[in-house]
Amino acid sequence: MTATDRGEARGSQRPLRVAFLVYRGNPHCGGQGVYTRHLTAALSRLGHAVTVFAGQPYPELADGVELVRVPSLDLYRDADPFRRPRRRELTSAADLLELATMRSGGFGEPRTFSRRVAAELARRAGAFDLVHDDQCLGDGLLGVLAAGTPVLASIHHPIAIDRAVDLAHAEGRLRALSVRRWYGFSAMQRRVAGRLPLLLTVSESSRRDIVREMGVADERLVVVPVGVDTAIFRPLPGVARAPGRLITTASADVPLKGLVPLLEALAKLRVEHEEAHLVVIGRPRAESGVPATLERLGLADAVTFLSGISDEELVREYARATLAVVPSLYEGFSLPAVEAMACAVPLVATTGGALPEVVGPDGGTGRLVAPDDPGALALTIGGLLDDEAARARLGAAGRERVAERFSWERCAEGTVAAYRRLLAGSGGC
């Protein structure tokens, strides 16, 4: 190896300057904020300089990770959804586009965030080695790419699957038309994904779905599973489990998450297990099917919704639970599954998407049932409620599986390897 080669090898390992983009960084609701917080913290611990550019709700970040706020009109804020902004708030073309898209029934944040952040990055030209986009895939990224900055993106799963599930559950032509309009941004995401040189995803299942749904060449996809902090998500032996207490996460109350089938399973379960009670991490949308299902099944007193809680509070809720349930019709990965397993809570999940890949074989580290099958869910949950030894075995095996396979350090190392591949392909280090 020549002196030049040795210098290049050392340079290939130098710390990187990363611009990390997340158009919605909610730290307590949805996977984007969780992924952003933990991955950027792990990248920082590896010695890389990470700056997060985020829209509302802004993420919570570790010390040493810089946050640059890229404010939107925030038209879907919890306190005032679909609000009407005042005229003085409309100060740019992106503002006008965001408002117009909302008023026409669409979701404009991925497009408008990407354009705002492209302008912000242009003002900081040369400050970053690469841009890592977290599933925004807005057309503003193409301008960043054209300016010469290497860009890659994480796609947790193709949004076309959410669209298909929502259309399948839409009642009437007007509702179906509304769903199609809302997901209008998916065509832009498909187009942008097709232009990026490298993409990250979180499971082999998602990889196959992205190739099929988004037309991305398989060789441009790198699988890097996400992780969990097992020092935070851990068993709490001093906290007693409540008999019949089930826990699930429905951070986004949409059909894809399978909350309605789980409620139907709960109603069946309570025939023989009167003590069964469900804790839902999240809150229902008034326009979803959940409130009507609760009323129809008479479950108002058997279901508790919790939202906006900290990781420490969530771990305590897991410690109180007898079983965790992931009833999703589809998952590209499933942070709630690995968090529950890390807490040694026995898990019942569906076979939707990547869940078997994450949870492991049925009966080994968790129990698996078909998606959208309340009867199978009720039967499997009931069997475990009656079998303390099986619960203890599954809980311990689940914790061991997570400790071996899913950590944020491993996720960060895989992500950095993808960064190096991107830079090598673009002529960088």
Q: Please, could you describe this protein's structure?
A:
- The protein has helices at 3-11, 31-45, 93-103, 109-123, 140-146, 159-168, 173-182, 186-193, 204-214, 259-269, 290-297, 311-320, 335-342, 355-359, 374-385, 388-405, 408-426; strands at residues 17-22, 49-54, 66-69, 130-134, 151-154, 198-201, 221-223, 245-249, 277-281, 303-306, 323-326, 347-350, 367-369.
- The chain has 17 helices and 13 strands.
- A seven-stranded parallel β-sheet has the order 3-2-1-4-5-6-7, sandwiched between helices.
- The longest helix has 19 residues, at 408-426.
- With 429 residues, the chain is an alpha/beta fold.
- Helix 4 packs parallel to helix 5 (140-146).
- It folds into two domains: 9-227 and 408-426, Rossmann fold; 245-405, Rossmann fold (3-Layer(aba) Sandwich), CATH 3.40.50.
The secondary-structure class comes to alpha/beta
Distance between the termini: 18 Å
**What is the helix fraction of residues, given as a range?**
40-55%
**Global outline:** globular
In the CATH scheme, the class of the largest domain would be Alpha Beta
What is the H level of CATH, i.e. the homologous superfamily of the largest domain? Glycogen Phosphorylase B
Largest sheet: 7 strands, parallel
Number of domains: 2
H/E element string?
HEHEEHHEHEHHHEHEEHEHEHEHEHEHHH
Strand content: 5-15%
* Number of beta-strand segments: 13
Poorly predicted ranges: 1-11
Order of strands, widest sheet: 3-2-1-4-5-6-7
Average pLDDT, all residues: 93
User: Radius of gyration, rounded?
Assistant: 22 Å
Counted by DSSP, the helix tally is 17
CATH topology call of the largest domain: Rossmann fold
